[in-house]
Amino acid sequence: MPQLFQEFAPISTQKWEEIIKRDLKGSDYAKKLITDTLENIKIKPYYRTENLKNLDYLDTVPGEFPYTRGVQKNIQPAKIRQNIKIDNIQEANQK
C-alpha cells in the first residue's frame, strides 16, 4: 500500500495530545472534543493505528461470529440510482 504524505515525519500520539491541549488553551479536552453516544460510548476526535490493536473482531468476515459485520455472508451491493427514460435530450436537460 502506498504511503500518503511521505514528506511529513511521523508524530506520536503523545505529541498530538500536547498540541491539542495547547490549542484548547486550557479548555477541558473531554468536554470539548469527546462525544458521548446514546449508548454511552465515548467517541474521540481522532483514532490511530494503535487503537486497532487487540480488536479480534476486525479479522472476522460477514456471517461469522461475533457478527459485527452482519449476519449474512453474501449481501448484494446497494444500487443507489434511478433509471430515467427520455425521448428528447434537450428537453430533459432543460427540465
Give a written overview of the molecule.
By secondary structure, the chain is mainly alpha-helical. A two-stranded antiparallel sheet has the order 1-2. Strand 1 and strand 2 form a beta hairpin. The mean pLDDT is 87.
Main sheet: strand order: 1-2
| Overall SS class | mainly alpha
Strand content: under 5%
Give the CA-based shape. Answer: extended
Major sheet: 2 strands, antiparallel
* Count of helix runs: 3
Which helices and strands appear, and what pairs or packs with what?
Blueprint: H1 13-24, H2 29-33, E1 35-36, E2 42-43, H3 89-94
Antiparallel strand pairs: 1-2
Task: Supply the key terms.
single chain, 95 residues, mainly alpha, 2 strands, 4% strand
Compact summary:
With 95 residues, this protein is mainly α. The protein has helices spanning 13-24, 29-33, 89-94; strands at 35-36, 42-43. The chain has a two-stranded antiparallel sheet with strand order 1-2.
